[in-house]
Specification:
Layout lengths: L1 E3 L2 H13 L4 E6 L5 H13 L2 E6 L19 H11 L3 E3 L3 H4 L17 H5 L3 H16 L3 E5 L3 H13 L5 E5 L19 H6 L1 H15 L5 H15 L3 E9 L12 E9 L4 E9 L1
Parallel strand pairs: 1-4, 2-3, 2-5, 3-4, 5-6
Antiparallel strand pairs: 7-8, 8-9
Helix pairs in contact: 6-7, 9-10
EC number: 6.3.2.1
Catalytic activity: (R)-pantoate + beta-alanine + ATP = (R)-pantothenate + AMP + diphosphate + H(+)
Protein name: Pantothenate synthetase
Length: 281
Amino acid sequence: MKVFERITEFRNEINEHKRNGRTIGFVPTMGYLHEGHLSLIEKARAENDIVVVSIFVNPLQFGPAEDYDSYPRDLGHDKGIAEKAGADYIFAPSVPEMYPTPPSVTATVKERTDVLCGKSRPGHFDGVATVLTKLFNIVLPDKAYFGQKDAQQVAVIEGLIKDFNFPVKLVPVETVREEDGLAKSSRNVFLTSAERKEATALHESLIAARAAIENGNRDPETIIELMKKIIETRTSGKIDYIEIYTYPELKPIDVLEGRFIIALAVRFSAARLIDNMLFDV
């Protein structure tokens, strides 16, 4: 496995593979890789000739009060995880390499951002779309792999690829969970031991919602109240939101039918956790 930090050097390497007709699978990350990322890399390995993992903590997608400086970083750790999973390349540019000057052109996401996490993070998905536009042009992937845990991001990226006509196939990969159901996340390390035990209630609330829907409940508000009760009684966390929308359009839904998502965010003392579940009814 090779590690590149310079765009020009990495591009020369990738162009050689493209000239030889090799397919490229791409896993964009912000590093501090865990088993969720491992599943993305392994899927990319199974479906492509070449696998590229990018590691870049993108400042454009962090708000003024968010955790950019404290976001966990450990390139040595990430190299071991990526190589074990079968990556051929790590592209790990610095901020000055990606943004040598303040960008004169950035992407603005107009749909699918005013709900869920996007509602409280104005400009976040503009930063995501901008950096992915750059990365798609640098890596030139045939397929790009993203975790379904961040379902809003997947929906936004689907729109980005479609609207900008990127020759990239989006491959969502199912959320990887701990044995007790908690979704894998780099931010789980910030939970206290008590909060870590409580956090299982997030997935349990989704399971309870699924059971209610399978039993015929089609009322969004009833389902949301059911989930609120579980989280509020079993955790010390503060609910940011529990919301239900069509998917991937992320539009309001009055009756639970068709394809939709139930998503939640809960804030603990030093970590904000998200989770979701997709339905076809």
